[in-house]
Specification:
Number of helices: 11
Number of strands: 11
Largest sheet: 6 strands, antiparallel
Radius of gyration: 20 Å
Number of domains: 2
CATH class of the largest domain: Mainly Beta
Strand order of the largest sheet: 2-9-4-7-10-11
Structural class: alpha+beta
Strand content: 15-25%
Shape: globular
Order of helices and strands: EEEEEEEEHEHEHHEHHHHHHH
CATH topology of the largest domain: Jelly Rolls
């Protein structure tokens, strides 16, 4: 499925984009800006990378640059009579819209990490969701200057946020989250280059020059999961891409994604995605 490059128009006298989107929502696409989306009306299926799930009113998602996405709204009898009423409130901004150094200052270390990890997309829940929606609802009727300072309030929430779930799986296009010379990054590069074959932890220890006792906790701290879980998600994420292309048999996809047998592939895929590979492929095909 081809990904469209669709960008909202930014007015020349504004530093970021505030947009009220109404049905029909934008088709499968991506763009270089970060995006915060609050669903005001509507329900249906949400696609973010290889993630497929239901959405409804107050669905709150944050997306990193170039992450493909689409909200597919359901049509009911009221829509047929009166026209669709699906609606979303969207904010977009580029990384350097406040200058190249803003997200590099010491006070924004956590905020910078939040933005980098958004390459997979976030779904907010809990108190963080309530806080963000409260700010967004106030922004509806604000003037441009007030909206700018409200966006800074959102950045403060992002800086301390912990109540969110990742959406898309890590894939070969995953953004590295660490500094250029961090040893864990060398392990990540090795995983991305070799996930289709068997990886020995000894290889990662040699690459990073770390011991068992230091490698495992350091990796988990950086990526909020064990290296084995991350490797599984990389493989499943790659398999999802192949499933959406529909050019290979599922057994071929299993082996090409680094799984030694089909039964293990099916088991791990369902554990991570909540459905079998064939169910995922069918749901994805029916949604588009």
């Amino acid at each position: 499925m081809k990904i469209a490059r669709i960008r909202l128009r930014q007015e020349p006298y504004k530093s970021f984009i505030v947009h009220n989107e109404k049905d029909p929502f934008t088709p499968w696409h991506n763009h270089p800006e970060y995006e915060l989306v609050l669903i005001i009306k509507g329900k249906g299926k949400r696609l973010v990378g290889d993630h497929v799930a239901r959405f409804e009113k107050d669905d709150l998602i944050f997306l990193g640059p170039f992450l493909p996405h689409q909200w597919v709204c359901e049509i009911n009898e009221a829509d047929l009579k009166n026209g669709p009423e699906d609606e979303a409130f969207v904010i977009q901004f580029s990384y350097d819209f406040l200058g190249k150094e803003f997200f590099e200052i010491p006070e924004n270390i956590s905020l910078k990490r939040f933005l980098i990890q958004s390459a997979r997309g976030y779904e907010f829940y809990g108190q963080n969701k309530i806080q963000i929606i409260s700010v967004l609802q106030k922004m509806f009727n604000m003037n441009d200057i007030s909206r700018f300072y409200a966006l800074l309030d959102l950045f403060e929430i992002f800086n301390f946020a912990s109540e969110y779930n990742f959406l898309a799986s890590p894939t070969v296009t995953d953004s590295f989250l660490l500094d250029k010379n961090d040893p864990i990054k060398y392990a990540m590069q090795y995983i991305m280059q070799n996930f289709q074959k068997k990886i020995q932890v000894e290889d990662l220890l040699n690459i990073t020059n770390m011991s068992y006792g230091s490698f495992y906790p350091t990796f988990k701290k950086a990526y909020t999961m064990s290296y084995k879980d991350y490797l599984l998600k990389v493989r499943v994420g790659y398999a999802c891409k192949l499933l959406t292309e529909e050019t290979m048999h599922i057994s071929e996809i299993a082996y090409d994604s680094g799984f030694e047998n089909l039964s293990n592939f099916n088991r791990q895929f369902k554990k991570i995605k909540g459905m079998t590979p064939s169910e995922f492929q069918k749901q994805y095909t029916n949604t588009i």
